[in-house]
Amino acid sequence: MLGLASLQHGRKWIARVFSSSPAIQALFEEKIALGKTLPKLEDNQTKLEMYALFKQATEGPCTQPKPGMFDFVGKAKWEAWTKLGSLSQDDAKKKYCDFIDALAAKSTTATITTALSTKAAASPLQTTAANGVVKLSWSAAGLDALTVNELSAAFQSAASKSDVKVIVLEPPTAFSSDNESSTKTLVETMAAFPKPIVTIVPAAASGLTVAVVSLSDFVFAHARATFEIPLGSAFPTPDALFNKMRPIHANTLLYLGEKITADTAQRYGLVSRVFTDDFQAQTTIWTERLAQNGHVNGGEWTRHRI
């Protein structure tokens, strides 16, 4: 025959199983499955809280003897479970479900934040703004749609802000585009910009980089810089080049593939200033000086007539 203790234990187990409503039990099992898909918990306190709620939900209040003093893990689990006292199994299940939902929400937020950070880090355009000058730089060799879209958005933003007086471009040494639409969009964006455009050329400039230079109102180049348009490459702004240089000089770039130095480019009218020492400091001084000139936004820039 079963002893009284066994009968009482059986009755308690039966009561626990049938006291939980089907809806709560189904939700509880769903959250158990969800919990298994979440990232591994690193915080011990969170692990203990989750363990205690699960034990209370499935077995009820803790009736196990306290582990020995040297069983640190077992003792921590026992204490976490015991703290729940006489909390009913249904209430424990509800708390467990809420607990898992909170973990899932936290995990989702972390995932979204990581994705946004990755996207931001992957942005092709670097933008800085100070003292009325917005500086845009990018390093991608290909003029893709994302780069053009970000450049266009930056130009539009700068055009609408009264505190922005000058936009400065630092394009890559050489970049190209297989997309005629992207090239056209960049050219139209620069041509329509109502404020001065400064382009910084620290080294060699080739292909579309020279096109950007030809559309700029001011070009500051390092003495080591060179300029060339490789033979056979598409060049979208020949009119802008002819507008800056005498045709005989522009022709040598466009049709003979001549490479010219910064000093030569300055003599031809393609470059405004050539610097040697303290190049970055000098370009910063001159662009800020331009931004402080109250008349820079009052006139028509040469590219507007192209």
From TrEMBL:
Task: Please state every residue range assigned to the domain named ACB.
Answer: 24-109
Alphabetized, the UniProt keywords read: Lipid-binding
Q: Which InterPro entries does the annotation name?
A: Acyl-CoA-binding_protein, Acyl-CoA-binding_sf, ClpP/crotonase-like_dom_sf, FERM/acyl-CoA-bd_prot_sf
For whether the record's keyword set contains Protein biosynthesis, the answer is no
Q: Name one GO molecular function term.
A: fatty-acyl-CoA binding
| Lineage top rank: taxon | Eukaryota
PROSITE patterns named among the record's database cross-references: ACB_2
A GO biological process of this protein is: fatty acid metabolic process
Q: Does the keyword Cell inner membrane apply?
A: no
Q: Which family does it belong to?
A: Belongs to the ACBP family.
Provide the protein name.
ACB domain-containing protein
